[in-house]
């Protein structure tokens, strides 16, 4: 397996612009209103004595994914080459157990397909040596792709 990769968000650089959300939607041809990445803003009211913080979140493609462990249909796979955790639509039964287990709220139920969906880590792009679309389109460089060391600690300081 290659090194375990992870998204790294620099909270001091994220402006909450949502370019990462749009890039994800465009790359994966998601319908309007459906996103696998989200930007959460803390202190949306802009209270003057509190900081405004934006947090871009998607699936973390965990080294040991709890979604995979809790899926009764064994629909989750981890690509050893890219580290991407993917849902196999041919195996998924849409029970949502994976979403209940995931601490990052990454798997989402698609009511039209009656299946679970989630960030793909842009596995095709990774296989080609390119960054995920959300990382490539971040105008401030707040969202990056890092490698984790063998102990699972981030190689770079911060979140």
Would you kindly provide a written description of the structure presented here, covering whatever features stand out?
This protein is of the alpha+beta class and 159 residues long. A two-stranded antiparallel ribbon has the order 1-8. Strands 2-3 form a two-stranded antiparallel sheet. Strands 4-5 form a two-stranded antiparallel sheet. Residues 152-159 have low confidence and may be disordered. It is built from five helices and eight strands. It has helices at residues 19-27, 66-69, 97-101, 123-127, 133-136, and strands at 5-9, 38-42, 53-57, 76-78, 85-87, 108-110, 115-117, 143-147. The longest helix is centred in the N-terminal third of the chain and has 9 residues, at 19-27. It is 17% helix and 20% strand. Strand 6 (108-110) and strand 7 (115-117) form a beta hairpin.
Kindly list the characteristics that best describe this protein:
two-stranded antiparallel sheet, 8 strands
Short structural summary:
The protein is α+β, with helices and mostly antiparallel strands and 159 residues long. It has helices at 19-27, 66-69, 97-101, 123-127, 133-136; strands at residues 5-9, 38-42, 53-57, 76-78, 85-87, 108-110, 115-117, 143-147.
Instruction: Write down the Rg.
Output: 16 Å
Proportion of strand residues: 15-25%
Low-confidence stretches: 152-159
Give the overall silhouette. globular
- Annotation field: number of helices: 5
Taking the sheet with the most strands, its summary is:
2 strands, antiparallel
Termini separation: 24 Å
Sketch the topology as an H/E string, one letter per element: EHEEHEEHEEHHE
Spatial order of the strands in the main sheet? Answer: 1-8
Structural class comes to alpha+beta
Query: How much helical structure, as a percent, in the residues?
Result: 10-25%
The number of E-state strands comes to 8
Give the integer mean of the pLDDT values. 89
């Amino acid at each position: 397996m290659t090194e375990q990769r992870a998204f790294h968000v620099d909270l001091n650089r994220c402006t909450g612009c949502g370019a990462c959300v749009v890039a994800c939607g465009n790359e994966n041809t998601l319908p309007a209103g459906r996103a696998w990445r989200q930007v959460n803003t803390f202190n949306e009211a802009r209270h003057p004595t509190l900081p405004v913080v934006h947090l871009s979140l998607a699936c973390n493609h965990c080294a040991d994914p709890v979604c995979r462990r809790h899926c009764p249909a064994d629909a989750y796979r981890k690509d050893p080459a890219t580290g991407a955790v993917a849902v196999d639509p041919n195996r998924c039964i849409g029970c949502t157990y994976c979403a209940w287990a995931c601490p990052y709220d990454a798997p989402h139920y698609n009511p039209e397909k009656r299946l679970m969906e989630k960030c793909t880590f842009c596995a095709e792009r990774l296989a080609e040596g390119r960054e995920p679309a959300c990382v490539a389109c971040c105008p401030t460089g707040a969202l990056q792709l890092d490698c984790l060391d063998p102990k699972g600690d981030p190689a770079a300081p911060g979140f």
